[in-house]
Amino acid sequence: xxxxxxxxxxxxxxxxxxxxxxxxxxxxxxxxxxxxxxxxxxxxxxxxxxxxxxxxxxxxxxxxxxxxxxxxxxxxxxxxxxxxxxxxxxxxxxxxxxxxxxxxxxxxxxxxxxxxxxxxxxxxxxxxxxxxxxxxxxxxxxxxxxxxxxxxxxxxxxxxxxxxxxxxxxxxxxxxxxxxxxxxxxxxxxxxxxxxxxxxxxxxxxxxxxxxxxxxxxxxxxxxxxxxxxxxxxxxxxxxxxxxxxxxxxxxxxxxxxxxxxxxxxxxxxxxxxxxxxx
Length: 279
What we know:
The structure is a single chain. This protein has helices at residues 3-24, 29-34, 36-46, 70-80, 119-133, 152-163, 184-188, 193-199, 213-224, 259-277; strands spanning 61-64, 140-145, 169-175, 178-179, 182-183, 203-207, 231-236. It is α/β, with parallel strands linked by helices. Helix 1 packs across helix 3, helix 1 (3-24) crosses helix 4 and helix 3 packs parallel to helix 4 (70-80). It is globular and about 50 Å long.
């Protein structure tokens, strides 16, 4: 896919995110929007997957370790064709299969239930180890938040992955700089993130703009060439990316826009979509 095609899809993913969270009157838009381009690249360019056969044995696996950004995952799954896009508007509603956190038992395309921070990467490491033990060729991808990596379990998983040389594992950190209580460096600084993963025997790729598809493509292509060690992609992103009043605002970590805010957000994304269509 071209960069322009990916940008158009990512804009649709953002529309799905904001629409779902608004309909739910709850959820986590900020981190879903910051990772929208990463979700889009993974599902439309990088991973070996098939919406018509969500459980195919040789599919690549994805684990959303920062499970609260489920609106981002659900929106890209719907865009890819795993389930109808209109179902996004049932997010968090009583009886809906689209719960506030990913549920592998009921949602097509979800490989692992997640939500308790720090645990997703451990599951991903287990999947990668399983592929090695059974000589399977699938790759495993997991997306973490930069606030999430304050969890000790993340580093236990990283230590194991590095020691077992799991070169079929790609850990992506959505480094948007903000968590629920403020700036990550002020709450409990995880920096330097790259040096920490290097210390656990990861090949580290720093992406200066994780909302840029040219840079994301270069990072994932580099990751594919790495052998003998797992990869960590540290992607610097903008929380709330694409919605003017949400960008870099910590207050939009976990709340839904009201009707007036929703209208402004939709106008922002509509204009962005129109601008992309004119390119």
